[in-house]
Amino acid sequence: MELYLGGYLSWYVHQKPSRLHIHLDRPVSLMELAARLELPLGEIAIAAVNGVAVSLHDAQITNIDSVEFHPPIGGV
Predict the structure, then answer these.
(1) For 10-38, b where at least 16 C-beta lie within 10 A, e where not — what string?
(2) How far is CA 52 from CA 15, 35, 64, in A?
(3) pTM (2 decimals)?
(4) What is the pLDDT of residues 58-73, one digit of tens each?
């Protein structure tokens, strides 16, 4: 799956990339993905899967999805 980190969110990830390619062995929730990357949930104001805004707490993703996380400032 492809993950885009908007605004300053890339600063929480090693090497600070704004785009990441992540292999998932199984479907995961956006909450689990954020936890794996050690992104503070309070810093994610907007989440989108395949260009559609979704709930960070409810959405599930797979390897074929494109995900975006945006902070409160500098979001979509």
Answers:
(1) beeeeeeeeeeeeeeeeebebbebbeebe
(2) 27, 21, 15
(3) 0.90
(4) 999 999 999 999 999 7
